[in-house]
Design brief:
2 domains, Histone H3 K4-specific methyltransferase SET7/9 N-terminal domain, 62% strand, 16 strands, mainly beta, 16-stranded antiparallel sheet, 205 residues
Length: 205
């Protein structure tokens, strides 16, 4: 360690440290602990630059992961919590609320490959609640449960019409096989085509 110390000899103020595992830290210390702004480089190639409180990532910071992904946003007690943006290794992005390191609350997920985006609610990292799934020339407005659309909703087409209907869970057929059946995808059952209407999944709450 090179840097400032307090009268008790603890790291205090600005300093640079090399840890026994090969990681390095350069930044602020308070009474022997990383507190304030600093940059921590991991031996595996990851890097965090941002706020610390008592050795934990806390406040605002950017984390670069070894796979090329990156998170920029709020941290609480070493976890992604609050509001932040995550760029995934495949180019997808999520911008929105976080809790306990997971997507949780309101957020927008953009799929790089298709350009589609999910705008709506998340629970513990999974799409869950009222949302819109926006594609290039149409969008779906409805509710999601465990990452899949379920219940009433509508497809809105850019040409100016809507298809109303609902996603229903198909009935699992009883089979005598030992293996657990794969969960079936919900099936869309259309009811009517209309002009554009103001219906939204929040109306039923």
């Amino acid at each position: 360690y090179e840097g400032d110390r307090n009268s008790q000899g603890q790291r205090h103020g600005f300093g640079k440290a090399r840890l026994p595992n090969g990681d390095t830290y350069e930044g602020q210390y308070e009474n022997g602990l990383r507190s304030g702004h600093g940059t921590y480089r991991f031996k595996n190639g990851a890097l965090y630059t941002g706020d610390y409180l008592q050795n934990k990532k806390h406040g605002k910071g950017v984390f670069f992961y070894p796979d090329g992904s990156k998170y920029a946003g709020d941290w609480v007690d070493d976890q992604r919590q609050g509001y932040g943006e995550y760029l995934y290794a495949n180019g997808d992005t999520y911008t929105g609320e976080w809790a306990n390191n997971k997507r949780h609350g309101q957020g927008t997920y953009v799929y790089k490959e298709t350009g589609s985006k999910y705008v709506g609610c998340w629970v513990n990292g999974i799409q869950d609640g009222p949302a819109e799934l926006i594609h290039l020339n149409h969008r779906f407005k409805g509710r999601f449960l465990n990452g899949k659309p379920l219940g009433r909703g509508k497809f809105i087409f850019d040409i100016g019409c809507e298809q109303h209907g609902e996603y229903v869970q198909p009935v699992q057929e009883e089979e005598e096989e030992e293996e657990a059946p794969l969960p079936h995808e919900p099936i869309w059952k259309a009811s009517e085509i209309t002009k554009l209407t103001p219906w939204s999944p929040h109306d039923e709450e």
